[in-house]
Each structure stands twice: as C-alpha cells, then as structure tokens.
C-alpha cells in the first residue's frame, strides 16, 4: 500500500475543495473554504457562518495562502481504502488502451495529460479498470475528473474542433471527440465519456461538483466497478478496500449508498446490472443478492410502466448480436429465476416470452 503523499499532481489554477479562500462582495472582504461549483460553473464557497455562497466566476476567488496547497481528492478517502501500484502487465495493458488515437488525431492519454498538467485529477474508472484487473480485454475509456467543465470545454474545442464536445449539465457528463455535438450519429468520431466528481444531488437542478472521491464511489454500483486508476502515477485507488480483489475474482458486492440522492430509475438499474454481470460469469455474494431483494428490486415499482423491460433490453439484450438475443433471453431467465427473482421476471420481462419463442 502506498502513502498518499507519494502521489504527484501539479498545483491547480483554481482552489481545491477544502482550501481556504478570499473573495469580495462590494467593499467587504470575506474568507471561507472553497466548496466546489454548480451546474452553471459558478464556484461556491462556504463562508465562516457555514452557509454556501455562489460567486460569479473563478477569477473572483483566490487562495488565502498560495503556498499552502491541499493534496488531491484521494487525501479524503476512508481509512479502509487501498492504494496500490499497477503491475507491469496491468500498466502495459492500460497504456496500450490509452495510446489509441481518436479522430482527428489526439490520443486518449493526450486529453488526460492536458487535464492533469493544469493541476486537476483525472482517473479511469469502471469497465476498463475492472477488465484489466481480471484479465479481460479492456475496450471502453470512461474518465472522472475534478476539472471544472467550463475549462474542459475549452480543451475539448482546441483538441477536437468547435463541435468537439457535448455536455449534460445536471449529470456532470461530457462526451468529447470529433463532431460530438453533431445531431447525426454517422458524423461523430470515437467519443470519450468524462464525468465530474459529484458533491450533491446528481441529476437534479441542485447538483454540485467538486473533488469527493468517497461520495463518488458510493454512487456507483459494485465494488469491482469503483476502482480508480491514475494513469499518470500508475496507481489504483480502491476507496472501499475490496474492489480490486472483487474485480480480480469476478465477485459482485454492492457499494452503492441508497441514501444518496439520485433518480430512482438509476438505482433500480443496479438490479438489472447484477444479472448482466452474472451472464458474464460474475458471482454475486449472498449479501449482494440480499441487498438487491430488499432495496433495489422494490425500487422497480417506482418506475414507469414498461420502463423495466426497456431497462432489461438496454442492459442485456442490446449488448449481444441480434442472432444471439433469443438464446440470451432464455439464459437470462434461468439466471434471474435461479437467483430467486421469479416475481421480477414474471412482472417485467416474462411478458415478452411469446416474442422469443415461448
């Protein structure tokens, strides 16, 4: 396990969340703690009374002491966290993925280095990290970063042209690549999915962003999908402490915190993703199955009629070739019912059995 102090990142051009700052309101000078920013890219400061104050832009706030910088977002992760160097084999696989070119020319690593060199953390997270850890082929590049999207949009335009990004403000999500903003799918190049770190109320008008890795990992589904890879320092960061081992053993354990604000259909999605991974030879723990039954399956009743079928289709059937969908349909029935979710199948998915030869 590495010490957090061994992780290098250059100073950022803006205050980091948690750093002391100074700002003015008219003739009055105020001090506070930098908190983060909202969906409109307004920086937010917690003043001395504890309330949050929005400011017009990042130039209206400065560090109280530029010589006292806070460490990166990994400095606030739980004591149970694991920080580990990638093996040479893991590093080579991830380097191979990140050195692929993206139309019209930059590589994945080029975008990562542009973010990092400006003093902001950027990590691979999700499927690519999980697949490298368990020996599968990594394909997707999903990034999470602390850089404000007002800055990232300028980088994206300079690297990929005036249509080089599309943004979803409430979800803290940006697609970056050639013609990413085009309405015609055939005109778009390979797109990189980039997300901000959430601080509060993802998917709502009250959403806030910052640099809280602990909060971010508790919004994710399974521990194996919540391992972060720093491609500059070549390290894995595992906030829950068992995600690396679960990825390597293809074990499913839920780390999602259902108390955190999030649209209910996103939480219900976790149940369907468990079955998706079971079809790929992942094994849920007994505790995982119990949580799905007690917490996430009941959430399906809060979704719109037909939404669960479409969720099943998007999550499972659409991921396989058309000629394999009938076989996958019946194989998924076996897995879902044998796991003890007969009612779910009968209520939401089995209604389509006749369309698949039933």
Q: Report how far apart the termini are.
A: 53 Å
Number of strands: 16
CATH class of the largest domain: Alpha Beta
**What is the CATH architecture descriptor of the largest domain?**
2-Layer Sandwich
* H-E string: EEEEEEHHEHEHEEEEHEEHEHEHHHH
Radius of gyration: 22 Å
Task: Give the full name of the CATH homologous superfamily of the largest domain.
Answer: Beta Polymerase, domain 2
Helix content: 25-40%
Total discrete domains: 3
Label the structural class: alpha+beta
Number of separate helices: 11
- CATH structural fold name of the largest domain: Beta Polymerase, domain 2
Low-confidence stretches are none
Concise summary:
The protein is α+β, with helices and mostly antiparallel strands and 358 residues long.
Descriptive overview:
- With 358 residues, the protein is α+β, with helices and mostly antiparallel strands.
- The protein folds into three domains: 4-70, SH3 type barrels; 71-255, Beta Polymerase, domain 2, CATH 3.30.460.10; 263-358.
- Helices cover 31% and strands 20% of the residues.
- It contains eleven helices and 16 strands.
- Strands 1, 2, 3, 4, 5, 6, 7, 8, 9, 10, 11, 12, 13 and 14 form a 14-stranded mixed beta sheet that branches. Strands 15-16 form a two-stranded parallel sheet.
- A hairpin with a 2-residue loop joins strand 1 (20-25) and strand 2.
């Amino acid at each position: 396990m590495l010490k957090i102090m061994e992780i290098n990142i250059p100073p950022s051009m803006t205050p980091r969340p948690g750093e002391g700052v100074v700002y003015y309101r008219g003739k009055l000078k105020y001090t506070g703690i930098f908190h983060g920013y909202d969906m409109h890219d307004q920086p937010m400061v917690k003043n001395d009374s504890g309330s949050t104050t929005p400011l017009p832009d990042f130039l209206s706030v400065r560090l109280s002491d530029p010589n006292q910088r806070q460490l990166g977002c990994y400095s606030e992760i739980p004591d149970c966290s694991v920080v580990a160097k990638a093996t040479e084999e893991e590093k080579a696989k991830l380097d191979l993925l990140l050195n692929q070119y993206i139309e019209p020319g930059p590589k994945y690593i080029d975008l990562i280095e542009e973010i990092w060199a400006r003093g902001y953390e950027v990590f691979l997270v999700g499927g690519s990290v999980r697949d490298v850890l368990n020996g599968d082929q990594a394909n997707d590049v999903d990034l999470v970063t602390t850089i404000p999207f007002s800055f990232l949009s300028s980088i994206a335009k300079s690297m990929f042209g005036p249509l080089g990004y599309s943004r979803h403000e409430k979800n803290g999500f940006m697609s970056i690549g050639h013609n990413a903003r085009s309405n015609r799918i055939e005109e778009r190049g390979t797109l990189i999915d980039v997300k901000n770190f959430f601080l509060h109320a993802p998917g709502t008008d009250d959403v806030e962003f910052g640099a809280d890795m602990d909060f971010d990992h508790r919004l994710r589904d399974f521990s194996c999908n919540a391992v972060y890879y720093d491609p500059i320092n070549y390290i894995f960061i595992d906030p829950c402490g068992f995600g690396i081992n679960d990825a390597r053993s293809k074990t499913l354990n839920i780390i999602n915190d259902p108390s955190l604000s999030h649209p209910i259909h996103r939480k219900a999605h976790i149940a369907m993703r468990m079955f998706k991974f079971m079809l790929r030879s992942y094994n849920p723990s007994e505790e995982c199955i119990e949580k799905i039954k007690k917490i996430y399956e009941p959430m399906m009743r809060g979704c719109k009629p037909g939404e669960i079928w479409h969720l099943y289709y998007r999550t499972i059937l659409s991921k396989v070739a058309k000629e394999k969908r009938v076989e996958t349909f019946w194989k998924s029935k076996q897995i879902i019912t044998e796991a003890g979710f007969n009612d779910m199948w009968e209520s939401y998915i089995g209604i389509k059995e006749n369309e698949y030869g039933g």
